[in-house]
Amino acid sequence: MAALVLAVTCATLQGCKIISIADETAAEQAKGAGITGRAAQAWTGEGAAYFAKAAKPVTEVLPAIRANLDDAGRTYGYRQAAEGAPWTFVVSGSGTVKAKNTQSRAGTLVVTLDGADPATDVTLQIGPVVRGNAVRDSLPFISFKDFENQLDYADMGKALNAEALKAIEGPAATLEAGGKVDFVGVISLSSSSEKVLITPVSLKAGT
């Protein structure tokens, strides 16, 4: 009976096409693999060079953000053209690990910055769960218009976060409270009242 209903339905619709669940799943997996590969290529290609060039001292950027987010964004940051897009800031800094949180899956390092007056603490995301899409949104060559839909764009953000985690996983595992650290990372803010979280793209033990 179900087959008869399907046949009659298809007979009344031009261009009716039956896609099996297996075919649909394979297509989604292929798309996911394509986005993952694109993220890896962006990370090792333009991404690495962009982060190295764009990074500004976090001790300069944070006071500017506190004073006026839009002014800070125009001076130090980048914002995609989409209405309401957040400001992103690529920053570099060094300091002493004040605390390490790995009890939560959204792991963090709290770092007291060198050169800040008074001493300033910042929070670095070390995963495995990373909040937000700061890495994706900071890259001017990654744009929503280049994706078929919002889901694919979101998947690109997740894939780039995964690349960032791979880049920092070694030092993140060994750093402990009291240790020195150097980092390059990305901040994403829609308003100056938001908590500042830095998603590191480079992390190493300092001296």
Automatic annotation (TrEMBL):
Keyword Lipoprotein: yes
Source organism, top-level taxon: Bacteria
Pfam families for the chain: DUF2291 (PF10054)
Keywords: Lipoprotein
InterPro entries tied to this protein: TM0957-like_sf (IPR036215), UCP033535_lipo (IPR014582)
UniProt protein name: Predicted lipoprotein
UniProt organism field: Pseudoxanthobacter soli DSM 19599
